[in-house]
User: Fold this.
Amino acid sequence: MARWFVDARGIEWEVWEIRPRDVPADAPAAGAVLTSWLCFESATHRRHLSRYPAHWETLAEASLAALCDGARPQPPFDAGERPLFGVEAWW
Assistant:
């Protein structure tokens, strides 16, 4: 399930949970320990958060914004592109 919220700066974010799926044995990530994380995405930024509350889907917008502020920035991306190699998005 995806959620949308607007942070205190007026930036609109979409957030969803990412869960690893089975990775082929010959894939670069094979053998790595993969856990779930939240992906936060605005029109120009993407962030990941690996430690988050199980009930994140029901949090108030201010709480989601606080989680987003603490999330790790990711490299820039092209709009509409979601490179999710070896993971499955649940939204």
